[in-house]
Design brief:
Length: 395
């Protein structure tokens, strides 16, 4: 069920789970993307006359109040994005919440304090969930990026109140369905980033579901080393050689092409504008490290992107934070963006670094969908059922 099913809600207290776990520096929000994503749901409910009560977590306070993890510091940024006043209650349950809710008029917006200030949130205890549920008549979950947590505010509440997906949750699920659920083929996945160890389940799942898997970033070195090639001083998890081989065997039996770099841009230091050269992957100097994939590899990646109808992307191809080792990531991102704009590709990307990389390439808005989810996006790519989504589907 979505907000389309919520018509007659004037005066109703709607508990809306949002993700306000945004980057903050010196008490100021430095990236309001997540707030912008949930704004349509909040506005729509407010315009329909509901009393909009926002529930969210911030940081990992371990079940007790921590001053610098108070959501009060996020209020000005939420007000700015919504262009509307947002009241704040110093607790998400008890009299502080009840009194603030009693003062609300139809269409008002109230943010309750960090749900993780109570142990019952992460433990998803029936008592705490019931306390939260007292504050609302209806429950809307618009926090896909927290849906991998089976917490009281992300999962438990759906058992206590009529539950609905917010607009961002709805858009996210529709995009993910197009990405891996029921995608137009061929489907190509690009997976990069530093380590294989954090993405074993994800790679194992992808080889069964996509037609080609491009492996880039530091993790590619582990696959290259597993084939007996010397990767010099490159980042490499030598102890995962057997895992890498197993992933390649699984890919072969599933008919998934594994695309590894043919060449690499190597340097002797990990710093911006370090002296660098492009070498064949079989000729990495012993004292050098690969910091980006080379031109031939980018051409191969772009050829796969050209063949694809669907692209799923997680993780950069190189050390994109330091120039010029962002070259491959930017080139592939731009190519994918152009194909998407031309209506030839559905492109879905997610995971923290991926969003920064696409922003860096200036193409995040040109992708079909860029998820702001980190862990939840990875678990989705692993093929796991997310508790916060499952409970909405059941409802
Ligand atoms: C995130 O930032 O990815 C989500 O808000 C979930 O946060 P968590 O990893 O602390 O549960």
């Amino acid at each position: 069920k979505t907000l389309d099913d919520l018509t007659d809600i004037a005066g109703k207290r709607v508990l809306v789970r949002v993700d306000l776990n945004v980057p903050v520096s010196n008490g100021k929000v430095t990236d309001a993307t997540r707030i912008e994503r949930v704004a349509p749901t909040i506005k729509e409910l407010s315009e329909k006359g509901a009393k909009v009560i926002l529930l969210a977590h911030f940081g990992r306070p371990k079940g007790e109040p921590v001053a610098d993890m108070s959501l009060s510091q996020i209020v000005p940024a939420v007000e700015e994005v919504l262009d509307q006043a947002v009241a704040f209650a110093e607790d998400c349950i008890g009299s502080a919440a009840a009194d603030a809710i009693a003062r609300m008029n139809n269409g008002d917006i109230l943010l309750l304090e960090n749900t993780r200030f109570h142990k019952g949130e992460e433990k998803n205890t029936p008592d705490f969930t019931a306390e939260l549920a007292k504050n609302g008549d209806l429950y809307v979950n618009d926090a896909f990026s927290a849906a991998h947590r089976a917490h009281a505010s992300t999962e438990g509440l759906a058992h206590h109140l009529p539950a609905y997906a917010g607009r961002t949750m709805q858009a996210e699920l529709e995009a993910l369905e197009k990405g891996l659920g029921n995608p137009a083929r061929p489907v190509v996945a690009i997976v990069g980033g530093a380590k294989v160890s954090t993405k074993i389940d994800l790679l194992m799942n992808l080889v069964k579901r996509v037609d080609a898997l491009v492996i880039g970033g530091g993790m590619a070195n582990t696959f290259i080393a597993a084939q007996g090639i010397d990767v010099g001083k490159s980042l490499c998890e030598h102890d995962l050689a057997a895992t890498a081989k197993q992933i390649m065997i699984e890919a072969e039996s599933a008919g998934c092409a594994i695309v590894l770099p043919e060449d690499g841009v190597v340097a002797r230091e990990f710093k911006a504008n370090a002296a660098h050269e492009t070498v064949a992957i079989s000729a990495i100097p012993a004292d050098a490290m690969v910091l980006d994939v080379g031109e031939k590899s980018v051409a191969a990646v772009n050829e796969w992107i050209s063949k694809a109808s669907t692209l799923v992307w997680n993780g950069p191809l190189g050390a994109f934070e330091i120039a010029p080792f962002d070259t491959a990531t930017v080139a592939a991102a731009k190519h994918a963006a152009e194909r998407t704009k031309a209506g030839k590709l559905t492109s879905v990307a997610g995971g923290g670094d991926t969003v920064s990389a696409l922003n860096h390439a200036g193409v995040a808005d040109d992708f079909s969908y860029v998820s702001t989810a980190g862990g939840a996006f990875l678990e989705w790519m692993e093929g796991k059922e997310l508790p916060g989504v499952a409970v909405l589907t059941q409802a």
